[in-house]
Amino acid sequence: MTNKKQTFLLTGCAGFIGSHLCEVLLEDGHKVYGIDNFDPFYDKQIKVQNMMGFSKNKNFHFLELDLSVLKDYKEFPEQVDFVIHLAAKAGVRPSIENPIAYVKHNVLATQLLLDWMKQSSISKFILASSSSVYGNNKEVPFKEEDNVDFPISNYAYTKKTCELMTHTAHALYDLSALCLRFFTVYGPRQRPDLAIHKFTDKIFNDQPITLYGDGTTARDYTYVDDTIQGILRSINYLNQNSRVFEVINIGNGSPVDLNQLVNSLSIEIGKQPKYKRLPMQPGDVNLTYASIDKARHLLGYKPNITLEKGLNRFVKWYKVNN
Fold first, then answer.
1. Is the whole-model pTM more than 0.90?
2. Nearest CA to 220 among 298, 152, 310, 86?
3. What single DSSP character describes residue 297?
4. Beta pairing partners, 64
5. Contact 255, 222 (CB under 8 A)
6. By the 8 A CB rule, do 299 and 230 touch?
7. Cα–Cα distance, 130 to 163 (Å, whole number)
8. Is residue 273 within 8 Å of residue 202, measured between CB atoms?
């Protein structure tokens, strides 16, 4: 981060990644206006707890808002240097059951936010996109220039749509923007519905973990500190460059299959899991695998946390908080 103190509008501030980013920005002396709507996808109290470490910081201002129903922007701050848009309705499988909600909270909300930025002459924007946009891409590792016109979930197409909307704002209004495609972020405060958190909970409580498919599906697990590093380096990049637009993978560059993940996790916990195997679910991809060459070149990004180290940190956090 640069020494210059800035004012950030950060959506999704109470979530997993957002709360970690809030902490770092505030520790660096920046001012943060945090927005969250406490979407009922999981328990509001988890999100409230996520913010406990910084909610009383004098440079933090919380706004409980639903971006998808904004009629005016009276509650928004008058002066903002930078917008980081992490908020989204999450979940691949639920998006198949309720696509309209995902269009509303991901696509419409993003457009309304971009409209406000135009009105307020705010020119720096980071969008949280997702590896889901790659679908079942046959070329590995996944590169930013790959064709992503074949999503296999509603969540994925809403994320791709948000990238397109961001590029349109860049083309029309000189918005400087980076769309960061996150790859399976994990670590302390990870959402309870995600695999590592869910598996850990089941193993500790001697309940069977559900594995979909034969265990050979693989994910590019990225520890949250590395994801935050990617965001911070993106802030620096936009502070140093104007009228730019880039799509950048923020991953680990080393996919791990499901069987290996469960084995590594059980070693950290010190217990053997019980299994329940089911067929692959609609919307699930076979593999995510990030090429991080572009992130290295443009941002100086370098993931530092191995899976073993990351799982060790997560399990320690879980033991303290459960």
1. yes
2. 310
3. H
4. 36
5. no
6. yes
7. 10
8. yes
What is the rounded average pLDDT for all residues in the chain? 95
CA distance readout (Å), 68 to 104, 107, 109, 120:
6, 8, 4, 18
Residue 3 has pLDDT above 80, yes or no: no
What angle do helix axes 154-173 and 109-120 make, rounded to 10 degrees? 20
Contact in structure between 160 and 229 (CB atoms under 8 Å): no
Catalytic residues: 155
CB 185 within 8 A of CB 249: no
Amino acid occupying residue 206:
D
3-state secondary structure 8-63: EEEECCCCHHHHHHHHHHHHCCCEEEEEECCCCCCCHHHHHHHCCCCCCCCCEEEE
Over 85-141, what HEC string results? ECCCCCCHHHHHHCHHHHHHHHHHHHHHHHHHHHHHCCCEEEEEEEHHHHCCCCCCC
**Identity at 216, one-letter amino acid code:** T
Q: Which of 75, 17, 97, 85 is nearest to 50 (CA)?
A: 17
